[in-house]
Amino acid sequence: MNSLKKEFSTFTLVLIPVAIAINIAVGQLVLNLKLPLYLDSIGTVLVGVLIGPWAGAATGFLANVVWTFSGLFPQAMAWAGVAAIIGALAGVFGRAGLMKSVGMVVVAGLITGVVAAVLSAPIAAYVFGGVTGSGTDAVVAVFRAAGLDALGANLAQGGVSEPFDKIATFLIVWAVMLGLPERLKARFAAE
Amino acid sequence: MIEFRDFSYRYPTAAADSLSSLSLQIPRGQFCAVVGANGAGKSTFCFAASGFIPHFFRGEAHGSVELAGKPLAEAEFGSLAAEVGIVFQNPFNQISGARFTVREEIAFGLENLGVERGEMQTRIQLALEVVDLVDVAERSPFELSGGQQQRVALASMFAMRPQVLVLDEPTSQLDPRGTREVFRAIAALSEAGTTIILAGHKLEWLAEFADRAILLDQGRVIADGDPDTIFAMETMGEVGVGRTQFTDVAAAAQRAGMLKDHAALPVTLAQAEAFFS
Amino acid sequence: MQAQSIYIDHPSALHQLNPLTKLTFTLVFLVAAFALPNAVALIATFVLILVPLAASGGLLLPLLRSAFWLVLPFAISLALIQGFFSPGQTALFSLGPFTMTLEGLGSGLTFAARLLLALGGTLLLMLSTRPDKLMLALRQRGLPESLSYIVLTALQIFPRFQERARTILDAQKSRGLETEVGLLRRLALLVPLIAPLVLGSIVEVEERAMALEARAFSYKTIKTSWISLEDSRAQSILRAAILFFGVVLVYLRLTGFWPQ
Fold it and tell me: In terms of CA atoms, which chain B residue is nearest residue C130?
């Protein structure tokens, strides 16, 4: 509980809505460009690595609350738990010093992607009947045709796209951290 | 009211002091302009006068800044907001976003202070009138122009009834129209009795409204006194602050021997008219 | 400027209800969406309960329109994927090696009906409730002010961030981001655009934090509220009754009462 309180200074509190706005702005941008990525958790991962696991988890969870409220994506609430775990993982990797070299950043993205795929598949399978209502359903169909059940096919589809997406996300966050002014870095380190 | 006592401050990662050995007093009700080049210490001055140094910015501070005789460093940071208000450059960043209309945005600070609803109503209405925003009270602050948003920030502070209002370049991101609107609003707050500390570049406007000017260079006070006198000084250029075109034209005319030497140089348009007539 | 939420203002009793009451409705619609046994029960609940509620708030058309566009892609995917790949005996037609079965199609459409009820229930709340009022209602029940700040502020600032993203993108269009075919090539163009957008926003956080402190956010007192909410004994009884109904649905589901 103590570490929870420590992570939520006014500075963190202000960072989180900005991070959520980044999630939505970049996520919608990428969606419109019809790229086979989501990039809708850049802000979540950024808060995780800059501040810590609790703040990362809060950002992920609340980002999905905001997606729901905005009307852009009301079903987002169903994925709030997964988003929270992505943020928490980013926090753990940040604390463990994985954001220091590009190789480690890729590993952190890969692990996060695999975890996200494993956690998302049951939600897609049992809450949404095994589909996501988007272009990735074509991939799900291929796996179903190959004989997998709903859970297996969603796991396979997520296993293909999530690690790719989260590696890209972690790399962008890494690039942003490299560009942060020294003064701000010192502040984040002190938060 | 606000007193700097041999105050020096250095930011955490900085190599030199941003303010060094400042000693000065700003009495209640004064409108004090703080001028200087970029990096001269204007923002640092604002943060020190409002308690953000040392409460929000870590780093190394010596001496003290006192509000009504009490050092800001010893005050509880959360309660300082009730005593000193501050307005920044960027209009967008100052809209909290936690409330949906201009009226509610102004109410936000009062809610945090625990002001009762009836009292809120009175204060919000007065603040809207002083900064001339009554017409847009029910609109989203995000739909407004930069000048209007800055006036929302001013009204939000004014409604909280601080003893001192610090403004850090409040018009630097605004067009001439926005600048005019905001300066008029600040003048109205000053007339209502608020002590004003304004850091900025727009000498014409400052000369019109300020009671006093403080010129900073490399963290030190190099001039302190009557705005008209200071803004017309030759040394302004040397420390990187451009004088107004009226001052420059009049100085050139003087050098060319067109005018008698000892008349005070004008800073504003009105002064220039008097000077040349 | 884009609207920050899908709330539609309208003078109605539904709008006047305490947000907690509407939230309770939504929760029970969500429970019902996954507890009810078949498409008939799901559609009946949608038509007989949700539709009249929406209509009473003058929100019928917006709700139906949003729900339709949200559910349509799911319905198509569900019909095709479940239809072809779920187990079933009654063949309808074949496409290559795959056969669409009546049972598969049925289970797909049942799932689409579940989503329709769940999303419809969510939309009912969002369309009829100002987000700040919902947050105030939750704060009155102990939700920390900080969580409410995060949600409301994010809702209001994200359209501004979208504008920034769009501005950057428009400036780059001519450089082939939209026309370029190669995936890696497009990604390589995109990343240098996103990083500065993110960085610029993070740099502003310091000033936003100071502005929030200047508004006495850390002031230690019992905060008051400018907007007020109505609530009544009748509404709290109504909430209890709806919740009880939800619990009954879960009970029936868990005990296998429904004919499957």
Answer: B100
Residue B236 Cα to chain centre, angstroms: 19
d(CA C200, CA B103): 29
Chain B residues in contact with A190 by the CB 8 A cut-off are 58
Adjacent-strand bridge partners of B197: B32, B166
Boundaries of every domain in chain A: 2-185
Measured over the CA atoms of residue B192, residue B198, residue B202 and residue B204, the dihedral's sign is: positive
CB A17 to CB B97 under 8 A? yes
Contact A186 B97 (CB under 8 A): no
Helix boundaries (H) for A33-149: 42-50, 53-70, 80-95, 102-126, 137-145
Residue A109 vs residue C91, higher pLDDT: A109
> What pLDDT, in 10s, does the model give residues C100-129?
999 999 999 999 999 999 999 999 999 999
- The answer to which of A130-134, B91-95, C35-39 has the lowest mean pLDDT is A130-134
| CA nearest to C62 within chain A | A71
Chain segment C58-91, per-residue pLDDT in tens: 999 999 999 999 999 999 999 999 999 888 888 8
Burial B178-206 (b: 16+ CB within 10 A, else e): bbebbbebbbbbbeeebbbbbbbbbbbbb
Q: Which chains touch A (3 or more CB pairs under 8 A)?
A: B, C
CB atoms within 10 A of CB A120: 23
pLDDT at C185: 76
B94–chain C Cβ distance below 8 A for any pair: yes
Collect all residues of chain B within an 8 Å Cβ-Cβ radius of residue A182.
Answer: 13
The one-letter amino acid code at B41 reads: G
Contact B12 A186 (CB under 8 A): yes
pLDDT range class, residue A4, cuts 50, 70, 90: low
How far A58 CA sits from the closest chain C CA (Å)? 9
H helix intervals, chain C: 13-16, 19-35, 39-45, 51-56, 60-85, 102-128, 131-140, 145-172, 183-203, 205-214, 233-254
The residues with which C100 forms a beta bridge, in sequence order, are C93
* Rounded Cα distance, B42 and B35, in Å: 7
| pLDDT confidence of residue A34 | 74
> How confident is the model at residue B256, as a pLDDT?
84
Pairing between strand B195-199 and B31-35? parallel
Measure the CA–CA gap between A128 and C108, rounded to whole angstroms: 10
Complex ipTM: 0.93
Q: Do B97 and C219 touch (CB under 8 A)?
A: no
**pLDDT tier for residue C1 given thresholds of 50, 70 and 90:** very low
C 73-112 residues inside an 8 A Cβ radius of A = 73-74, 77-78, 80-82, 84-85, 98, 107-108, 111-112
CB-CB under 8 Å, B58 with A190: yes
Domain boundaries, chain C: 13-137+231-254, 144-213
Q: Does C162 touch chain B (CB under 8 A)?
A: no
A2-185: what CATH class? mainly alpha
Cβ pair B109:C210 closer than 8 A:
no
Q: How far is C105 from chain A (nearest CA, A)?
A: 12
- Return the DSSP state at B216: E
pTM: 0.93
Which amino acid would we find at residue C21?
Answer: T
